[in-house]
Fold:
Amino acid sequence: MGNLAPVHSCQSVIMQLRMRVVSLYGHVASHIALGCSVQDLLMPRMILMVQALKERLVERANIIQARHDSETAALVKRQVQHHFTQ
Structure:
């Protein structure tokens, strides 16, 4: 019985995704019927996706840089301590 919940949950997610695809298809089709090109319709979304990706990458780069700075400072501290113990 415990395995039924994940299957039901997966089926629910699949159904929601199908509904979104149908909705998006209808949205795109209606704009094409009005004379909008697919490129014109999707370009703003693509720009937003690229901007969001850039923000995530910059955030990750800042985290990596902070970690590098922290590790470098710790290494320098260990090297100074080692130098004085010699």
Summary: Confidence is low (pLDDT under 50) at residues 1-7. The two ends are 66 Å apart (CA to CA).
